[in-house]
Amino acid sequence: MSFWDIPGMKAGVITGDLAWALLKHAKDKGYAIPGFNVTSTSSINAVLEAGKKLNRPVMIQFSEGGSAFFAGKALPNDKKQASILGAVAGAHYTRHVAPGYGIPVITHSDHCAKKLLPWYDGMLEADEAFFKQWGEPLFSSHMLDLSEENDAENIAICAKYFKRMAAINQILEMEIGVTGGVEDGVDNSGVAKDKLYSTPEDVWAVYQGLSPISEKYTIAASFGNVHGVYKPGNVVLRPDLLDGFQKYAAGKLNNGETKPYFFVFHGGSGSEKEDIDKAVSYGVVKMNVDTDTQWAYWEGILKFYKAKEGYLQGQLGNPEGEGKPNKSFYDPRKWIREAEVAMCKRVEESCADLKNKN
Ligand SMILES: [Zn+2]
Fold first, then answer.
1. 167 pLDDT exceeds 70?
2. Considering the domain 3-297+345-353 in this protein, what is its CATH number?
3. Domain spans of the chain?
4. How many CB atoms are closer than 10 A to CB 195?
């Protein structure tokens, strides 16, 4: 059964029961949907273009910093007002164009630590207003990252927000334990190694805290994953831990459900394909992709510049003659397009890694 056979499946942004049905389908069929961080309409288009080419669903996600960039670096952001504006504008933009690409799209906001909650509040207000008008939230889902707090506080704050989100049929992604590395200003590179691995009890506490509110939540548990690309060897990735978490919960629930959790893979950049395969088989339904597509976007421009260097030194004058015009080389549609093409290719690769292909 293709994801297109899910009742009600459609092109464009999907939310609520339909978005959740897609994640369930992914878990049942053994694939995951990559969530790509975007910072502009250009990077959104690159992700959608890959989805269109593959005829597969994709996730578009906005970090707090990426959202502020989306609205424009000149705007004040002391109260996260630019981040709110940018995320909301990006979600609306995606809603407008996604149907044109002919694929289902999930819109999402990335890591929100405690100090960034004003950003989250602003997005939720926009979701609630949208829900009043259209009967669904603006964003399909949001991520709360209270993993810097102790587990009890983390789960309690998630539960508080999740009640509000459940009322508008929205999905919550949360993080338990610590993902190593640096992500949007949160530096966990000095964290003790044992903190980089969640326990079955840690994850079960999340289930107990959130399941009574709604089934629509996903968990980024720690299994030695690290944000960003690092030299291998420092932390060992242990996807088998996810299998253990599922088995522990299945035993507790004893209702025939073998993989009760919906996991999210953070910090997957540079991971071995074999580890990604295992993680997906243990119930990972989404993997974040940022670092690798950032590099691809830049590399597209780098290669273009190197290939056309002689045509990019002034408005006039190139290897073909002193007065020859270079407009067709420095036109942003030329070199930004090169970035998009390279990013699109990398997005396709991530989709293939996660078996999000036909
Ligand atoms: Zn994370």
1. yes
2. 3.20.20.70
3. 3-297+345-353
4. 13
